What does this fold into?
Amino acid sequence: MVEALLSVNHLRTALPERRGGRRRREVEYHEIVRGVSFHLQPGKVLGIIGESGSGKSATCLSILRLFRQATIQGSVQLAGTEITQLKEAEMRLIRGRQIGMILQNPASFFNPIASIGQQFVDTLQSHQSLTRSTARSIATDHLAAVGLTGPQQLLQQFPFQLSGGMLQRVMIAIALALQPKVLIADEPTTALDVITQMQILQLLDQLQQQTHCAILLVTHDLGVIAQLADDVAVMYNGEFVEQSPVAQLFDRPQHPYTRSLFAARLSHRREGGR
Amino acid sequence: MPLLRRLLQHKIAWIGLSLIAVIVFTALFAPVIAPHDPLQVDLMQKLQPASFTYPLGTDHLGRCILSRLIYGSRVSLSVAFIVVSLTMTISLVIGMVAGYVGGKVDTCLMRICDVFLAFPSLILSLAVVGILGGGLFNLVLALVASHWAWYARIVRSRVLSVKESDFVKAAIVSGTRRLPLMLRHIVPYTLAELAILASLDLSHMIMHIAGLSFLGLGIQPPTPEWGAMLNDGRDFFRGAPSIMFYPGLMIFIVSLSFNLVGDALRDALDPRTERRVQVETLTSKLQNG
Amino acid sequence: MGWGGKRQIIQALREVSIDIQPGTCLGIVGASGAGKSTLGRLVLGLERPDAGEIWFQGEELGHLPLRKWYRVRQDMQVVFQDSFSAVNPRLKAQDIISEPMRNYLNLTDSEVAQQVIHLLETVGLTASDANKYPHQFSGGQLQRVTIARAIALKPKLIVLDEPVASLDMSIQAQILDLLLQLKQQFSLSYLFITHDLTAVAYLADAIAVMQSGEIVESLDNVNLNQLSHPYSQQLIAAQLPSHPRDRKAFPSNLLLNSFEQSSISS
It folds into this structure.
């Protein structure tokens, strides 16, 4: 069996919640990820499906240690190295380059006062020694690859000038350009139209074909899972309630929650005589 | 009221509010609290250090510094409040009309704004006071004239941005007419920001008043006012620094308090700042990596 | 039967003509930037057409003066894609929902409150939700609030601009079910703007496919297999599969460069 690129074992994440507005600050911890374990193999896609609030984004943020206020327990190993205890400076080397990430809210990803080009190029250069012009051409190529027109002009623009969908594609372009070993894609296609959606999924697939990376694909859409995932974990209330290869999940969903997700699909709800 | 409750939850707000409360209290009850008449001259007692009778000492005319400080707060605070209220009202109306109505009205109003903005505020207020003379009314006029344009611009840009948002469009589709739309949806947005700016600006206003008085152009002697006191104390700084020190300290404390409250107000007025998970700007992480 | 069909020609980008029959839902499908939202805004009077006519209930809207729009708006409402930006975040749900009522009807406060509760229950929420602020709702729930606002005046037409695109898949079905039920209950007409063919097949009675500001194909039913235009075919091909065995081979014309020329080495 091939060694897992990313191994997560018994990951638990808790957020402190302050009780009441009085002087005494009682802190109660609210667990949003409760003991999640999975392994990502190179060249494979693990899909995590769940609804908003199930903890799937929190899982991604916890792995990357971007969750400032939360306490994280458990083990996360990248190619055998434990990364939960690494210093922040060491984590920065890992983020983007070793573990790439595509976030849900593109606006929060970007520095509002730097141009797209500046951020893209700086990011590329910080991970690899490249001349500015090489970095720019990589940037323009990837922006074009994600379906953005006029990539040269785009580099000059600022985040506020782009729509949410465009920012999302820029974010994906950056993540892909860094060619990480592991890519965590959190709802990469939400709110994009169907054609763009397919383009993005195709890009992820192509990246995997070429670099043999592992992909953790987090989504609420069973269609995305059907199209791209090799294995699936169903997340509910902070835990995996079911985990199996994709065909098996679609053919024989076991857990009642999984079944309810399948039942909620539009294609299955159309009544007869309409 | 939920706003007040949220405001009070802010630790910083407590400091600022309590300081302001103390100062307002002393201003209101000045006649009771002040040990002496601030205008009473006693040349035999001039330039005295701190003592039991004169807790902060006396100035060059033998007047009690503490009493003058306390009465001075009345002047500074009341003038500041009047000016800020007038400025806010004028700028709110002009900014709203310019932003919402747009077109020629907007252009015309903004050009007028530009004229006023072309002058640095101190110069403008100096000019007004210089031409019209000193005194309270002219002081207020000068300060309002030098500040309204800046606020109006801000209100206008806020209105312009809110005008494009989906909820305003939804309100239009719901049949809301122009005036109710402005009052119900746009004003609250601009008012919040205006309130924050005003509270921050109060501190600036107080300093501006002090500045003008320091130059002898604002509040006329012998009315006690912190800036004027600073001016009085200049000649005696070597021997009796307290004449300048205490008024300076008061200006500093009051400015700081209003700043703190302004910060807290900003947080309290945003219904969404309650409990947000902070995701770091990933770019900086990636970039530094 | 009291109101004429709607015909509309836009020259913002190209020529567009559509008709919506009373009590039916017309689905406008296309990718982003196709001009679908512009169409919606023109119908609602948020923008003016450069040429052409918009007929609604026997009245031409394209050249209607602003003050006359007030009357028209009572019969035409909207549901936007992002519910959070479509409501004033400082207002409670009941103020949001009651705004149209307060604009047109002369009701007492208690009558308004009653109506609000009735509307909340109609859209699947509860009376206690009336006092909540938008940030206290989930996306799906807030969308129900905006739907409640839209049906408050029992309009004839509702423009649905991507009403479920931002919602979880499982919630999408619930909201579409709600819209379907309301359409039947109140004999509403919908202009349903979306990029999701499955959603269109679910809710609409007729389809118009839009590309770059132009209607390239239309059907008066929702049998997607009858769509023959190449762009329609592209849209169908881009729909996600319902089972891994139906995985779509990525069509080569959809995608562009490969990464080999420009990548940083690993």
